[in-house]
Design goal:
The protein is α/β, with parallel strands linked by helices. It contains 14 helices and 13 strands. It has two domains: 183 residues, Rossmann fold (3-Layer(aba) Sandwich), CATH 3.40.50; 157 residues, 3-Layer(aba) Sandwich (Rossmann fold), CATH 3.40.50. A seven-stranded parallel sheet has the order 3-2-1-4-5-6-7, sandwiched between helices. The chain has a six-stranded parallel sheet with strand order 10-9-8-11-12-13, with helices on both faces. β8, α7 and β9 form a beta-alpha-beta unit. The protein is elongated and about 60 Å long. The model has no long low-confidence stretch (mean pLDDT 88).
Length: 365
């Protein structure tokens, strides 16, 4: 099968969709001919020689206009005609609209990854609804990584919609991976890790408010960067808790598994979330997860079994959950084993790829 993946998100850029598209392409390419069309303004060069990756610009000098969409569509069509795929798999709403306008004679599968889509969907503006109907309606099949996204997508299109969750590389993310060396802390320290961009939707301010309420022996590593980083740091400093918090910034993707392996607990205080790849990576290393009851997190966290669920925007609940796991090593060990088993059984890339190929075959029948 010849498979054409179209995306705005691809390594070396960092993010959940970037990881998803790369891992899917890599696993599909074991048995099929795969080409990735990366539509990006990035000057970075794809570092993955095992894959065929073509780059084109997004043509954003006429933002959100029909000329912009048509220019992009024309370039997409050139790549489609050159590669001659059996199926197109789009990973971006805007690109799907471009594909619908050029109308290639090739079946299209679309994955709706975006938690941002949920915000626009619930806001219900006519312009957004029209955009979604056009994008989803052209596809022959829609995939979503969470049940919440599936239900929302299903309400605005008659196109078949199925949930296939995000996956994780269980060979790379495993309990015995090499551990990160964190100079500020000893090997005996109890460490709570978060790997979130400092953006409003990720709820980092609520973690900052929770930290001073937790046991003073607990240490924190907050990886990432973003617009709210300074505010988060100021909040921690104002409560005299910065002495037990490390904020190293963004860590290269090839190093991130070492931090998961070193951590005792990982936390996701999100306000919006699909099925987070970061959450799955944490669980794959056997690091139990504390997550909020939003989006796809309750789909992967069984409260009290492989992690803990807390309400969003609730520093008191976050601090209580952290203290509970710190003071209960037996519970922590049990959750660690269960977290790894959850990922191995349902979220390996072997399983995700198999399920995706079944959709392709169904569309091509």
């Amino acid at each position: 099968m010849r498979i054409h993946l179209i995306t705005s998100n691809f390594p070396p850029e960092v993010g959940g969709i970037e990881t998803h598209v790369y891992q899917l392409a890599k696993n599909l390419a074991k048995d099929h001919d795969v080409e990735v069309l990366w539509i990006t303004e990035s000057n970075n060069t794809p570092q993955h020689e095992e894959l065929s990756v073509q780059k084109i610009p997004p043509y954003t000098y006429t933002k959100r206009t029909i000329p912009n969409v048509m220019l992009r569509g024309k370039k997409i069509l050139e790549n489609i005609n050159t590669f001659d795929p059996d199926i197109i798999h789009s990973h971006n709403i805007g690109h799907n609209i471009s594909i619908s306008l050029i109308n290639p004679d090739v079946p299209v599968v679309f994955t709706n990854h975006s938690s941002q889509f949920l915000s626009e969907f619930y806001r219900g503006r006519y312009r957004d609804m029209l955009k979604f109907k056009l994008s989803f309606g052209y596809a022959d099949y829609c995939i979503t990584p969470s049940e919440e996204l599936r239900k929302a997508t299903r309400k605005i299109t008659e196109t078949p919609v199925i949930e296939i969750p995000n996956g994780v590389n269980i060979e790379r993310f495993h309990p015995k991976a090499e551990e990160a060396k964190i100079p500020e802390y000893s090997t005996e320290d109890f460490i709570v890790l978060t790997t979130r961009r400092f953006e409003r939707k990720n709820g980092m301010r609520y973690l900052a408010e929770a930290i001073p309420r937790t046991n003073k022996q607990i240490k924190y590593v907050l990886l990432g960067d973003g617009a709210e980083r300074e505010k988060v740091q100021q909040s921690i400093e104002s409560n005299n808790a910065m002495y037990r918090v490390s904020m190293p910034g963004t860590v290269p993707n090839e190093q991130i598994h070492k931090y998961y392996s070193r951590a005792d607990v990982c936390i996701m205080p999100s306000l919006k979330e699909a099925v987070s790849i970061s959450a799955l990576e944490s669980m794959a290393t056997g690091t139990p997860l504390i997550g909020t009851k939003v989006g796809g997190l309750p789909e992967i966290i069984s409260d009290g079994e492989n992690g803990l669920l807390v309400p969003p925007k609730d520093p008191e609940a976050i601090s209580k959950a952290i203290n509970e796991l710190y003071s209960s090593p037996n519970i922590l060990d049990r959750m660690s084993r269960n977290a790894r088993d959850t990922v191995r059984k349902r979220y390996s890339w072997e399983t995700i790829t198999k399920n995706t190929i079944e959709i392709y075959e169904n569309v091509l029948q």
